Amino acid sequence: MPPQLQNGLSFSAKVIQGTLDSLPPAVRAFVESSVGLCEPDRVHICDGSEGENQQLLGHMEAEGMIKRLRKLDNCWLALTDPGDVARIESKTVIITQEQRDTVPIPKTGLSQLGRWMSEEDFEKAFKARFPGCMKGRTMYVIPFSMGPLGSPLSKIGIELTDSPYVVTSMRIMTRMGTAVLEALGDGEFVKCLHSVGCPLPLKSVPLVYEALSWQHGVFVGAAMRSEATAAAEHRGKVIMHDPFAMRPFFGYNFGKYLAHWLSMAQRPAAKLPKIFHVNWFRKDKEGKFLWPGFGENSRVLEWMFNRIAGEAGAKLTPIGYVPEEGGLNLTGLGDINTKELFHISKEFWEKEAEDIQKYLEEQVNADLPHEVQREVLALKQRISQM
After folding, report:
1. Per mean pLDDT, which of 18-32, 96-110, 340-354 is the most reliable?
2. Is residue 278 assigned to a domain?
3. 4: which DSSP letter?
């Protein structure tokens, strides 16, 4: 078991169902250390009840994760990638100190009788994948039994996951819930940790907004995120911090880079430009783009030019100025949901402001200009007043 699952870390998530005090000490320690590692926003201790099951099914239906098949009672359709419907042998490994404890050592190549991984390699793989992997989500604590409760042949496990689909599936395939914890007591159990592994999309960043000031604009640039490109070593669609969309290309200390841009405001008779942030890729609940993009982006540029010329109005929000109602030229575009396109969620931005502050403090540390620190605190204050 890697140290991350052994050593207790700080507990910061909100428990939305059940209580930590109801857990056996060893189970509680496992949950607390995993919360510190995976950083979920909430913790839900599963009781295995029908009410809980229906609540989770309703949540997944509302989020578009599953579809009700109405011709049959309690029948649901869940779709997944064809390559994700069964265990993959090459990615199923057993970790032991010695390879021969797991598989015979073949004369050449990889063993066809199993996959072994050293504890050191597993530690590296674990650290690369799990820190912060549940940010913005709920961690579900699933007590389960493989076999009838009380049978000497049964095995009890505790699975931690951020997938409600896994919770409902485990309820079908195992004995799951409060009764398992009661049967476990202070006994031994198998520790299971699972995450869907995909960062949450930036659901509440509007199509365009204008910075409140030059200093705020520099902060907006420092707080930018983007999807990792195919050229990067990051695999899959990873939304990551990407200050100024320049993260791989800074040639010197980023703190001094920020200070350089901030210093522009101190130049005599400086005519500082307005700074705008755009998000062309905002999606609705069905995963469809809210904005058509491509050549239609010129409509957003038109609003920017008009703002610079003092010819366009704007609505003040906690994160900056957005186009006022009717301020964006949408002629000929058909039905555009501007309400959702420019909606600013307090819950999202509270979390985003915390993430931005943590990233800048950890990565820039003592070199972070105090002007940027003030902008972080000001953003958090404005959001708190929404």
Report:
1. 18-32
2. yes
3. G
Question: The CATH number of the domain where 230 resides is what?
Answer: 3.90.228.20
Looking at residue 49, what DSSP letter applies?
-
Q: At what angle do helices 254-263 and 370-384 cross, to 10 degrees?
A: 80
Are the beta carbons of 236 and 198 closer than 8 angstroms?
yes
In angstroms, the CA 311 to CA 323 distance is 12
Same domain, 165 and 288: no
Question: Does one domain contain both 225 and 263?
Answer: yes
User: In this structure, are 172 and 245 located in the same domain?
Assistant: no
Whether 208 and 323 have beta carbons less than 8 Å apart is answered as yes
Q: Where are the alpha helices (DSSP H) in 252-385?
A: 254-263, 298-308, 338-341, 346-363, 370-384
CA 95 distance to own-chain centroid: 28
Considering the domain architecture, whether residues 230 and 373 belong to the same structural domain is answered as yes
CB of 42 within 8 A of CB of 16? yes
**Exposure b/e, 75-88, CB count within 10 A at least 16 = b:** eeeeeeeeeeeeee
- Write out the two tokens for 237: 């669609």
Domain endpoint, select from 193, 219, 240: 193
Q: What is the pLDDT of residues 150-175, one digit of tens each?
A: 999 999 999 999 999 999 999 999 99
Q: Which of 136, 166, 193 is the last residue of a domain?
A: 193
* Residue 58's pLDDT band (cuts 50, 70, 90): very high
Are 380 and 356 a contacting pair, CB within 8 Å? no
Q: Is there a domain that residue 115 lies in?
A: yes
- Alpha-carbon dihedral 238, 206, 246, 274, rounded to 10 degrees: 180
Q: Look up residue 78 and give its two tokens.
A: 């869940």
Please answer whether residues 218 and 261 qualify as being in contact, where contact means their C-beta atoms are separated by less than 8 angstroms.
Answer: yes
Q: What is the pTM of this model?
A: 0.56
pLDDT digits 0-9 by tens, 266-288? 999 899 999 999 999 898 877 78
**Domain total for the chain?**
2
Which CATH number do you get for residue 184? 3.40.449.10
| Residue 161 lies in domain | 3-193
Higher pLDDT, residue 44 or 136: 44
Flag whether 202 is in a domain. Answer: no
